Every structure is written in C-alpha cells, then in structure tokens.
Amino acid sequence: MSKERNDIFAKNLKAERYRKGVTQAQLAEAINISESSVSLIERGIQSPSIFLVYDISKFLEIDINDLLKNIS
C-alpha cells in the first residue's frame, strides 16, 4: 500500500473506531495484535494485511468498504 493509501486507511480506521467508542487496546485485543501495531496502522506507518482489514471490519461491525473508502 502506498503512503497516501496508508494515510487514507488510517484516517478511516480511526474515525470508525472513534464512532464505535472502541479504544486501541480493545481493538488490538479483539483482533489479536499489539496495541502498538494498532497505533502504527492508525498513523499510516504500518500496512495491514487484507485479513487484518477483514478482522477489523468484523469487530467494528462495519462494511469493509467503510475502511477502504476514498482509496483508489
């Protein structure tokens, strides 16, 4: 994923997580990664795998497309 795409995904993830009232720690525990990894993803530093994106969408109970919107 390019830096621009990472940044857009990061923004989408953070917005959806806030909307659901979920902390980084809660998300990390639910999808079995470290809280620091969630932080890296939300800052656009680390790219998540498609499987991780799927797990995030399922935990947040959102359509995967909500995490991928505006990424071209």
Give a description of the structure:
- This protein is mainly α.
- The protein has one domain (3-68): Orthogonal Bundle (434 Repressor (Amino-terminal Domain)), CATH 1.10.260.
- It is 69% helix and 0% strand.
- It is built from five helices and no strands.
- It has helices spanning 3-20, 24-31, 35-42, 50-60, 64-68.
- α2 (24-31) packs across α3.
- The radius of gyration is 11 Å and the shape is globular.
- The mean pLDDT is 95.
N-to-C order of helices and strands: HHHHH
* CATH level-four homologous superfamily name: lambda repressor-like DNA-binding domains
What is Rg? 11 Å
Any idea of the CATH topology?
A: 434 Repressor (Amino-terminal Domain)
Query: Mind summarizing the main beta sheet?
Result: none
Query: Can you identify the CATH class?
Result: Mainly Alpha
Range of helix content:
55-70%
Q: What are the low-pLDDT stretches, counting only 5+ consecutive residues below 50?
A: none
What is the strand tally? Answer: 0
The tally of domains stands at 1
End-to-end C-alpha gap? 11 Å
> What is the 3D form?
globular
Strand content: under 5%
State the CATH architecture: Orthogonal Bundle
Given the structure, what is the number of helices?
5
The mean pLDDT is 95
SS content category: mainly alpha
